Each structure stands twice: as structure tokens, then as C-alpha cells.
Amino acid sequence: MRCAELLIPYHLPSEFIFGAYTSGTEAAERILGIKSTCDVQVNPWFFFQ
């Protein structure tokens, strides 16, 4: 079983975000548009769909 959730009460500066997994290329492009240095990996097997 894989489950993940991140609860941040107020604000998380982007310099603390180094990578992300996403289920598709559209989300990956959106993330890279916000932070181009982020290591984004597309892996639909990580997500329930």
C-alpha cells in the first residue's frame, strides 16, 4: 500500500521542495512552470486513478 499526504499549516517556501512525482505530463509541466529546478518524475503507478 502506498499513501502520502503533506499537511502544511501556513506556507512552505519553494526552496524546500526538491522533487515531485506526478501521474501525468500535464501536471509535470505545471510544476516545472512554477519551479524549473524541481526533479519531476511522471509515474502513474504511484496514484489511484
Q: Topology, pairings included?
A:
Layout: E1 19-22, H1 25-34, E2 39-42
Parallel strand pairs: 1-2
Shape: globular
Strand content: 15-25%
Largest sheet: 2 strands, parallel
Radius of gyration: 12 Å
Helix percentage range: 10-25%
Unreliable residue runs:
none
Q: Give the strand tally.
A: 2
Strand order of the largest sheet: 1-2
Provide key terms for this protein.
16% strand, 1 helix, globular, single chain, alpha+beta, 49 residues, two-stranded parallel sheet, 2 strands
Account of the protein in words:
The chain has a two-stranded parallel ribbon with strand order 1-2. 20% of the residues lie in helices and 16% in strands. The protein is globular. It has a domain of 29 residues. The protein has 49 residues and is α+β, with helices and mostly antiparallel strands.
Question: What can be said about this structure in brief?
Answer:
The protein has 49 residues and is α+β, with helices and mostly antiparallel strands. It is 20% helix and 16% strand.
